[in-house]
Amino acid sequence: MSGSFSPGWWAGAVVPLVFSVGAVADVPEVTGEVAAGVWSSNRMLDDRHTISSNRAKLKLDWQASESLSLSSEVWALSSPERLDGRREDAGVNELYVKSSETLCAPALGKKLVMWGRADGINPTDQVSPSNYRRLTPETTDQRTGNWGLHLDCAAGAGKLQVHVLDRFRFNEVPLEKTDGVTFREQDPDVRPTVAVKYDVLGSDADWSISVIDGHDLFPTFAVRSATPAGVTLGQHATRMRMVGGDFTIVRGEMAYRGEIAWVDFEQPSDPAVARRQPYTSAIGGAEWYIGDRETVSLQGFWRHLRSVSSIADDPLMAQVQAAQALISNELDRDQYGLTLRYARPLFDSKADLDLFAVWTEPRNDWMLRGRLKYAITDSWRVSTGFDIFRGPQDSFLGHLRTNSLTFVEASYLW
Prior knowledge:
Elements: H1 7-20, E1 29-41, E2 49-63, E3 68-78, E4 88-99, E5 107-111, E6 146-155, E7 158-166, E8 181-183, E9 193-201, E10 206-215, E11 220-227, E12 230-236, E13 239-251, E14 254-266, E15 279-290, E16 294-305, H2 315-327, E17 334-346, E18 351-361, E19 365-375, E20 380-390, E21 405-413
Parallel strand pairs: 8-12
Antiparallel strand pairs: 1-2, 1-21, 2-3, 3-4, 4-5, 5-6, 6-7, 7-9, 9-10, 10-13, 11-12, 13-14, 14-15, 15-16, 16-17, 17-18, 18-19, 19-20, 20-21
């Protein structure tokens, strides 16, 4: 699904920016990347192999005056990630105007919000959506921003971030095709999301507490129609509230990290909508810096469902509920496991190696991800890597087995 923006908002934001431009305006800084790669599989849970993927992004940063700046990032690609089968798509990741010398440095527009200090799994990072079907070496390139008003206020020893967000978008998740079932993607028109975070960068520790009142980024399945010819499923936005926190403590060559989130759902009254399971999720561990080159991180995590819905009496809804539990990782009352990361530079720091593994119980499913990036020149880069998913088919990571892949990608940056 491509990004969009309102011409009315654009005019309202840009007109005051243009009038503010004077002799102090800087030349806009434009950076970008063009990449082409070959992937052994896609991330659509189908049986397609040897996939070509081409993508481009363009980023602009413009200091229009001493107090006003404009930031934007747009993208285009030709790659299999849409449920309608179309390869070509384009959109906007970020587009906002910021007034740095105004109280709370307000930014208006589409801005990426990423939270959490844990490594790889971040229970509090539930503001900006992800496209998990996108073929890209970096998970950050799967993210997109949120439209709204973004505030960054100095408050005591830290900063208070406030995000009032409009135009809700779901995470785009892999969905296995099932005979007789049609899935209809449509982002809902729901009340704005409010996300607040108090963040402290201290001499002894960095920490934050955060609150979200909005809707869960993972879609909730809803039966829109059921006929002898088949079933049509849609997306329902489940109201969600989250309270969380994180911390980092550095002692010598070790960093200790932790993160926790308490999430509650407001269940819909419609019996044709799947139920969601409120949960508490926590992760914590240590990161070792070995010399100035190698990094090893080990974490333990735990996820507890505070209530588990009984299987619906309706056989159709029982299947929908089971599918919902699989994509939103709500299968077991208690899930626990470990993460391990090893990273180091290679070849006189021209290359970077990164290995990341996740193992979970009680279903014994796991994931191993490897990345190797090599800088041929300052502009040309080659990346290669793999994703491996294993475990029972009825496990969160095991059901992604079809999405296991290897790839090689060449990119040009400027």
